[in-house]
Amino acid sequence: SGYVIVQPASPTQNESLAVSTFQSYFEKATGITLGVVSDSAVAFSDELKAISVGDTSVSDAAGVSFAYKDRTQKGFTIKTVGKSVFIKGGSAGALYGVYELLNRWFDYDCFGEFAYYVKTGVRELYLSDFDVNEVPDIEYKNTYMAGFLRNPSDPNVTLAMGYEKTDVITGPKSNLHNSFTYLPFEEYGEAHREWYSNTEGSGGLPHQLCFSEVCESEEAFTITLEKMKNIIRADGKNFPIISFVHQDNTYWCTCEKCKAYFEKYNSQNAPYIYFLNKLANALHSWAKDELGLDNIKVTGLAYHANEAAPTYYDEATKTFVPIDDTVKFDDNLCMWYAPHSSDYQLPYDDPVNKRDYEALQSWSSLASNLIMYSYPIAVYDQPIMFYDTFNSMQRNYQLMTKYKAIYLLEDGGTTPHRTGFHDLKTYLASKLTWNSKRDMRVLTESFFDFYYGAASEPMKNMFEALRNRYTLLHRQGILSQKYLKYYSAELYPAGFVKTLKGYIAQAYAAIAPLKTESTEEYNAYERRICLESLSCRYIDIITFGSQFKDEELLAEKKSFKTDCVRLGMTAYRNNTSIDSLWTLWGV
User: Fold this and answer.
1) Across the chain, what does the average pLDDT equal?
2) Using the 8-state DSSP alphabet, how is residue 99 labeled?
3) Residue with more model confidence, 501 or 151
């Protein structure tokens, strides 16, 4: 090849990673190592043979620009000019443009941890006339979806799946439930008891702030603003969104001022919004003037007692509108909405989820941007269990996009790895949050074919059997709860459990030849199959354990423990170490 990779003379970290990623996978696909040169060493002409990555001078000379640079970090353009291909975009756009180009040329994809595909043995590659512009449907995704994204053994998987290497939301100590960190009762309660709710919990401590008083206090505003400035000073470029979030409980202040606001707006949020608007406007202006940062935003949280937005339904327009202009959001203020009472087996716009869907529409009518907190696993308290939210995930991403979500945190629980085909769910989320109109069936087929290899068919059959069973149980009203906290022979009859274990046995048999042909491939497939075996084995032990002989049951429990430890299943219940299960079982 006469082609070279051109990078900026002083590349950013993302541009350097994009260049090395492209060079590495191009070599894997073709056997050819393309050289890397600085843009200062080449000049553009129609005869230049180059893959230009990032904001290079040759891309400027070729007239290549990215129209959406001010609204996205990850969006990109891929454009052919003459004999060269140019990739540029937002601050991370070069990397995601490289991933896209590799996909178009070599079918590149990332399916999970240490699970990458690229076509090899490519000897001819035709230059395409590219004119691609992409902006993700949802710009930011928190790594909480999966343990292997939060604490990866694979250093590349987080970015390759489109998640944030470093979260874009920050706050003091935590980006959630931090209002008392800004204004701690221990520090200000004696002098300003009026800042805190008249409802109290254990030890006489207030449940929340009284936002009716706080929004009128210049001192409370100044204290909070200065703390936000210090956080932005520390690392504002990495954390463009800063949170001010109420405490994690269902209580709210019931003083006369707060009651008056509630009666007027049918919502707890009017004074909360006033305070947040004031912070967002002041912080954005300061960051722009003092630090040259024009992207700083503030977010609150709509959760528990303050989920209702101060809106009403306008029959004329068939939309939700603000009760008055005072509760409209500043352009630099977001709202983090957590529809935690939804039945995630169904999309938000299903009649069953009417309350949460109306709240989603209401907050979108007030705010320029929404942040979403969702629960894609549904069995939040049972990380060992399958639960079918595959029916709702694509539609929910489409609705999030429609209602202006820029950031998504999906609560995947606390264990590093989880069963229930959660790896598939994580893969689908990585694709559908970028483009929510992609064909989910095609993506699912691709995942099974790569992730399980020769065992694809039995694992797919197991997945479909579980989905069919859960569809039936949901229609019967048995699985209508959000959090499944029980097991029974009604849910999982012995014959059904036997069928599931049969698919696992078929999967192991399908990959058996690899034991001698390719140990590395065998070990990868075996771990993935074993992970999915855990749920049906667990059900068998706790539901039908009495049907085992004592020594057989003990052996089953010990084998289950060995595999859980090996595969990183660290939680038995949410935030409960699986060690307590071993104690309960005596293993």
Assistant:
1) 94
2) H
3) 501
Backbone φ and ψ of 288, nearest 5°: -70, -45
Helix (H) or strand (E) holding 16: helix 13-30
pLDDT(481) > 60: no
- Model pLDDT, residue 379: 63
- Tell whether pTM > 0.90: yes
Would you give the DSSP letter of residue 289?
I
> Over the stretch 432-447, which tens digit does the pLDDT of each residue have?
999 999 999 999 999 9
- Three-state secondary structure call for residue 410: strand
Q: How far is CA 110 from the centre of its chain?
A: 16
CB 80 within 8 A of CB 128: yes
Tens digit of each residue's pLDDT (9 = 90 or more) over 555-564 = 999 999 999 9
Task: For 103-171, give the secondary structure using H, E and C.
Answer: HHHHCCEEEECCEEECCCCCCCCCCCCCEEEECCCCCEECHHHCHHHHCCCCCCHHHHCCCCCCCCEEC
Which amino acid is it at 26?
A: F
In sequence order, what DSSP letters do the residues of 343-408 get, joined into one string? -TTS-TTSGGGHHHHHHHHHHHHH-SEEEEEE-TTS-TT-TTS----TTTHHHHHHHHHHTTEEEE
Say which residue the tokens 């771990």 belong to: 527
